[in-house]
Design goal:
single chain; 230 residues; alpha+beta; Butyryl-CoA Dehydrogenase, subunit A, domain 3; 3-stranded antiparallel beta sheet; 51% helix; elongated; binds zinc ion
């Protein structure tokens, strides 16, 4: 058994039954014959959903960073802050590294991750070949996942809000709601994306002209143990 044989083996995520994957067309799916769990989701639909969620998250990210985040008012004084203000608040003197870390962890890394996912999936939406270095881009997106901390920032903000609410009137701005939505969309994006399917598509479509499905992706007979549905 060589490497390409090994790459085609897939264990069912629920019951551990081992399958040799058949070649699937982009609109076909493969289910476990024993427990019915999805082994490979239809690529076309899965890719467009993940791609759309990544783009949505990028737009929400822009709104969350540049829009007004909080309005504070107390005793006739009013103050307005954005996420950018929060990052810049530490930009003087010894706290500068903290400012850099906050900016990287809550804005730059999450945005870079989403852009890398969009770069990987975009060209493959209609069955085309991946762009150059799509494999590296997707791997980097996976490696950055633990460092993408927009939701941690939101938890911090929520805790701070509870403390400040007793001292001043707090009005969450549009950026606050954008960040809440962003966290939700990012979770949806992460859970909806079948990484194995993405890797499989990157491998099998490499070097093919755009918009065409190569011989390896045309539907073929399924192995006897595999239930296959269009
Ligand atoms: Zn199973």
């Amino acid at each position: 058994m060589d490497d390409s044989d090994l790459a085609r083996l897939r264990a069912c995520p629920h019951c551990d039954a081992l399958y040799r994957l058949p070649e699937l067309a982009p609109r076909e799916r493969a289910d476990c014959a024993r427990c019915g769990a999805t082994l490979i989701a239809p690529q076309v639909r899965a890719f467009s959903r993940s791609f759309a969620l990544a783009i949505t998250a990028l737009i929400l990210m822009a709104g969350a960073v540049f829009g007004p985040f909080l309005d504070l008012s107390t005793a006739g004084m009013q103050s307005r802050a954005s996420v950018l203000d929060a990052i810049e608040a530490f930009s003087d003197g010894v706290m500068f590294p903290l400012s850099l870390a906050v900016g990287a962890l809550i804005v730059v890394i999450p945005a870079l991750r989403l852009a890398l996912i969009a770069y990987t999936l975009g060209p493959m939406l209609r069955g085309g070949a991946p762009w150059p270095r799509a494999g590296q881009a997707f791997r980097l997106a996976e490696q950055l996942k633990p460092w993408s901390m927009a939701e941690i920032f939101l938890i911090g903000v929520a805790v701070a809000l509870v403390k400040v609410a007793g001292l001043a009137t707090v009005h969450p701005g549009i950026a606050f709601w954008a960040l809440c939505l962003l966290v939700l969309v990012t979770v949806l994006q992460d859970t909806s994306m079948d990484k194995e399917t993405v890797w499989h598509a990157i491998e099998t479509r490499r070097g093919k002209p755009d918009g065409s499905f190569g011989a390896a992706e045309r539907p073929t007979a399924a192995t006897p143990a595999m239930a296959k549905r269009a």
